[in-house]
Design brief:
binds iron/sulfur cluster, 1 helix, globular, about 100 residues, two-stranded antiparallel ribbon, mainly beta, 8 strands
């Protein structure tokens, strides 16, 4: 389990740059596959303190990343960035 900070504020799961989703999928290009543009869900009004303690499950298909262990992301604090219509994994590090 990891904590996710996410810059992609157009996503409906994003609340104050925290990811509200219990689990996300990351595709083989290290981009968040669970990104969904749209209105925020009703439970996005959590206090920051509860958001900071939230853990997210990450299933990642970028298996050539150093943090990937059988599709499980082993990083404790994951940073997701923002692109025009996607959300890229900032911490992706290609294995040698
Ligand atoms: S883009 Fe992905 S990591 Fe960011 S809030 Fe949405 S689901 Fe969570």
């Amino acid at each position: 389990m990891s904590k996710i900070k996410c810059e992609q504020e157009k996503c409906k799961y994003n609340s104050n740059k925290y990811c509200m989703k219990d689990g996300i999928y990351v595709d083989k290009h290290a981009s968040c596959d669970s990104y969904e543009e749209g209105a925020k869900t009703s439970n996005t009004n959590f206090e920051i303190s509860s958001l900071e303690s939230k853990d997210n499950q990450i299933v990642c298909n970028a298996t050539h990343c150093v943090y990937n262990n059988h599709k499980d992301c082993t990083i404790t604090h994951l940073n997701i960035g923002k692109e025009k219509d996607s959300a890229n994994c900032i911490d992706f590090e290609e294995m040698d």
